[in-house]
Write a structure and sequence with these properties.
InterPro entries: SH3_Tf2-1. This protein has one helix at residues 5-36; strands at 47-51, 71-76. By secondary structure, the chain is an alpha+beta fold. It has a two-stranded antiparallel sheet with strand order 1-2.
Length: 83
């Protein structure tokens, strides 16, 4: 039976090991997601849909997700702002 400082040391070592493994896994998942991600470029005159996140007056997201709209639009881009 381990008591005192040895138990604390083993526990902190295990926590460090778990955190390191989680970091490796998160980095791997991020690299997979980043490979699929592409920058979006829109030109004036194109039509786009906007993703909607509906909120209540309190600021929480609505619970009934089945019937809520996911996108609104189409909206036409009139001019480019920026570069």
């Amino acid at each position: 039976m381990i008591v005192g400082p040895e138990m604390v040391q083993q526990t902190t070592d295990k926590v460090k090991h778990i955190r390191a493994r989680l970091k490796v896994t998160q980095d791997r998942q991020k690299s997979y997601a980043d490979k699929r991600c592409r920058p979006l470029e829109f030109e004036a005159g194109e039509h786009v849909f906007l993703r909607v996140t509906l909120t209540t007056g309190v600021g929480r997201a609505l619970k009934a997700r089945k019937l809520t709209p996911k996108f609104i639009g189409p909206y036409q881009i009139t001019e480019r702002i920026g570069k």
